[in-house]
Amino acid sequence: MPARYGPCPVAPITHLIKFQVEELTTSDYLLKIFRVSIPHMPKTAAKFGHELQAALQPMIIKPSGGGGIQIMQETVGCMCTVVQHLTHDFIRLINLMKSCNGTFLYNNLLNVPLFF
User: Fold this and answer.
1) Angle subtended at Cα 66 by Cα 87 and Cα 69, rounded to the nearest 5 degrees
2) pLDDT (tens digit, 9 = 90+) per residue, 45-104?
3) Other C-beta atoms within 10 Å of 67: how many?
4) d(CA 115, CA 112)
5) pLDDT digit string (tens) for 27-37?
6) CA 91, CA 110: separation in Å to the nearest integer?
7) Residues with Cβ < 8 Å from 27, sequence gap 6 or more?
8) Is 62 helix (H, G, I), strand (E, B) or coil?
9) What local confidence, expressed as pLDDT, does residue 7 receive?
10) Residue 32: CB partners within 8 Å, gap ≥ 6?
11) 43-53 CB burial, b ≥16 within 10 A, e <16
12) In the chain, which ranges are E strands?
C-alpha cells in the first residue's frame, strides 16, 4: 500500500510548543508585575483596574490548560490585588471565588483533571 501522507512535520509542532511555553512564561511574568505594582498605583487608576479585572475573570473561570496551577495562582493573586487596591469590588470577587470553589469541588468529586 503506497504512503499517501508525507512525514509528520515535527519542526512546526516543536515550534508551536516552544511558542506556547514562551507565551505562558510571559503571562506569568506580567501577572507578577501587575500584582507587585498595583498597590503603588494612584487611586485614579480605577478604570485600568476595572479593565484588568474584566480581563482576569475569564482566566479564572476557564483557565487555559497549559499554565497549570502556577498561572492560576498568579491570576487569582493579581485579581485579589486589583480588587483590594483599585476596584474595591469585593462582592464580585467573592462570587467569583464561590463559583470556582464549586467547580473545583465538582471536578474533584468526578476525578476530572482541572488542567490539561
Assistant:
1) 55
2) 999 999 999 999 988 888 776 667 788 889 999 999 999 999 999 999 999 988 877 666
3) 21
4) 9
5) 889 999 999 99
6) 29
7) 67, 71
8) coil
9) 47
10) 74
11) eebeeebeebb
12) none
Residue 103 corresponds to which cell in the numbers above?
467547580
> Please, are residues 87 and 49 in contact by the beta-carbon 8 Å criterion?
yes
CB neighbours of residue 16 within 10 Å: 10
Grid cell in block for residue 56? 482576569
Q: Which of 39, 44, 40 is nearest to 83 (CA)?
A: 39
Gap between the Cα atoms of 111 and 38, Å rounded:
37
Higher-pLDDT residue of 43 and 78 is 78
Q: Which residue has the cell 498605583?
A: 41
Can you state the angle between helices 90-109 and 68-82, rounded to 10 degrees? 160
Report the distance separating Cα 96 and Cα 80, nearest Å: 11
* Per-residue cell: 15: 515550534
Instruction: Tell the residue number behind the cell numbers 505594582, with chain if given.
Output: 37
Supply 100's cell numbers.
470556582
